[in-house]
Design brief:
By secondary structure, the protein is mostly helical. The chain has a domain of 37 residues. 91% of the residues lie in helices and 0% in strands. The protein has 2 helices and no strands. The longest helix is centred in the middle third of the chain and has 34 residues.
């Protein structure tokens, strides 16, 4: 029961937020996730290069 109330509160919070804020929030989230992925791939790529050219 408490979870349902919590979820409703979160939904109300998001519906009260204007669309612009919501969009920027998701955009930042996606951006940070993408940069994390990019750094991970860059590091793994460099590691493979070091292994092949040792």
């Amino acid at each position: 029961m408490r979870n349902i109330i919590k979820n409703n509160a979160i939904l109300n919070f998001y519906s009260k937020m204007d669309l612009k804020k919501k969009f920027y929030f998701h955009f930042e989230h996606i951006l940070s996730f993408k940069t994390a992925l990019d750094t991970f791939f860059f590091i793994s790529f460099r590691k493979t290069l070091e292994l092949t050219y040792d």
